[in-house]
Structures are given as structure tokens and as C-alpha cells.
Amino acid sequence: MKQSLFESRHQAQWDQFSRRLEQLESGKAQAADCCDFPKDYRRLCQHLALAQERGYSSFLIDPLQQLALRGHQQLYRHRGQLGADTLSFILAGFPRLVREQWPFVLVAGLLFFGSLFGIGILVLLFPELIYSLVSSEQLAELQSMYDPAANHLGRTAERASSEDWVMFGYYIMHNIGIAFQTFASGLLFGVGSVFFLFFNGLLIGAIAGHLTHLGYGESFWSFVIGHGAFELSAIALAGAAGLQLGWALIAPGRLPRGEALRLAARKSVQLICGVMLFLVIAAFIEAYWSSMAEPTPLIKYLVGAVLWLMVAAYLLFAGRTPHAPE
Asked: Transmembrane stretches, by residue range (predicted)?
């Protein structure tokens, strides 16, 4: 193919790529404008390789090389920016968002932790109450998991021999399922999130009260106190995200419900991203630390207390300083 024909065929693509580069370099590019940038960059590199292979003049090859160099710099600069943005969200953006949404977080926390502690105390005072919430078969399985004489703390007999990494994956899927259910059901005008927050609080609290009443409290509480800092906080925050969706539908203000829901979903999804991080951390602790039989209960209580303090300090204070990443 002659050079003139090659240029006429692809010049419009090169000009468009050059304009997009100028937008990226000046910081004026929109996110939607960057979606096709990697594909356009690869196509330009292909054109450059063809021009060099066919021996076209330097009047064509040199400008293409300059475009390819500038494109390479922009491509990898934005890839690095993604990592920086993720780190910024973890270190500052997520806790700021939790504090910003404090009304929903407060309501979700009261529903979840209030029902948890309330039913736990009631089951301690009235042990028969547990049978109205949990079946006898489930109770037998739970008692075998936390029996002080058992050698598979926090695991059923069937899963006792499972590798820690297998249980890590199981815990992630199980916890994410609960969190997503609590979040997504908020689309039912918030009623679904209220139900699952209250129900999960009742279930966890009733089991805790029952096992404590049986004398299994030390094995149970030493097991859950570590990963519970992240797991229980994540469930409450997932509920808060769901309540935000529900409130956008109930009280959209002057906006149409669809627009109010879209705006609420933007922040709710960000909140859920932080929840997923908490659940991964919780699953790791549960698989590799909580189930260990070697540490004494006192050590587990101390580690658990430190983890609860870390979660509280992170959510309350991270990202407050002026030099925190934006």
C-alpha cells in the first residue's frame, strides 16, 4: 500500500487520538472519553509498526512515534491513578462516607445491634425462647461447633478437616450473601433492609445467648470476637446502604424517584465496596485466626478488643486530617 493511501485511510483516527491525548494531558477528559483509549492506543501502535515495516518516510513515522510515546505515558499514568484512587478510598474515602451517612448508619446499627443484644439477654433469662427462633437440628449442629471438648472450633464436623483457604472462600461467599441480601432488599422502600437487619440481629443474639447459657460462652465468644469486629460492622453498614436506597424512594424530595434513586445508589454502591473489604478481612481472620485452638481465650479476647478499637477508630477518625488523600 502506498504511503499516501495509508495516510488518507487512517489520518482521521490519528487526529482523533491526538485530540484525546490533549484532553488527557490537560486534565479535561471525562471518564466516558477514556473507555476506548487503550483500544485506540493499540491500533495506533499497530499502524506505527506497519509504517516502519513498509519503510514509509520519517515524515509519517516520527509523528506516529510521538503519539505512541505520549499515549504510553497517559495509559500507564491512569492505570497508576486507579491504584492511588483505590488506596485513597480505603484510607479516607470510605470512613468519610460512613460518617457522612451517619443517620442511616445509626438507624441500621440500632436495628442490628439492638436486636442482637436484646434477644441475647432475653434468651439468657428465658432459655426456652431459643426454640422459637432456631430449630433443634440447627442447635445441635451449633453446639457441636462450639463444644469446648471439640477439636474443630467454629466448624461443623463435616468441615473440620477443610483447609483454611477452603474455609476462607466459604466465609467470604456466606458473608457477602448476607450483606448483599441486606443491601439489595432496601429497594423494597427500605422494608427489606429493616427486616434483614432485625432478623440477623435476632438470630445471632439468640445463638450467642443460648451457647452462653449452656456454658459454651468461652469457646463461642473467643471465636467470634476477632472477626466479629469487621463482620458485624459490615452487616450494619450494608443495611445502612440499603436504607439509603429505600429512603430515596420514600422521600425523593423535588427529584423524580428514579433520579433520587440513581443519586442515592452512587453513594450506596461506594459504601458496599467498603463493606466487601471488611468482609474479606473478616473471612481471613475467621479462617486463619478465630478457628485456631492453640491461643488461649484471654489472648483471643485481647486481640479481639484491639480489632474492635481499630475498626471504631478507623470509621470515626480516618480521613479527618487536612492532608488525608482526597
From this structure: 104-126, 168-189, 196-216, 228-250, 271-292, 298-317
pLDDT of 243 above 90: yes
Task: Say if residue 244 is in the same domain as residue 132.
Answer: yes
Domain assignment of residue 54, given as a range: 3-76
Residue 323 pLDDT greater than 50, yes or no = no
* The C-alpha cell that represents 100 in the structure block: 457522612
Q: Among 178, 172, 282, which residue's Cα sits nearest to residue 229?
A: 282
d(CA 77, CA 37): 13
Domain boundary among the residues 76, 103, 126 is at 76
Q: Domain ends where: 49, 76, 103?
A: 76
Q: Verify that 194 and 269 share a domain, yes or no.
A: yes
Q: What is the pLDDT of residue 197?
A: 96
Half-sphere exposure of 292 (CA within 13 A, CB side): 13
pLDDT band for position 147 (cuts 50, 70, 90): confident
105 with 240, same domain: the answer is yes
What whole-number percentage of the chain has pLDDT above 90?
A: 44
Which residue in 199, 185, 183, 169 sits closest to 234, CA to CA? 183
- Banded pLDDT at 326 (limits 50, 70, 90): very low
User: Looking at the structure, do residues 213 and 103 belong to the same domain, yes or no?
Assistant: yes
Q: Please list the alpha-helical segments (H only) found in 126-190.
A: 136-146, 164-184
What pLDDT score was predicted for residue 42?
87
| Pair (156, 254) in one structural domain | yes
Alpha-carbon distance 103 to 86, whole Å? 25
Cα–Cα distance between 116 and 189 in angstroms, integer? 23
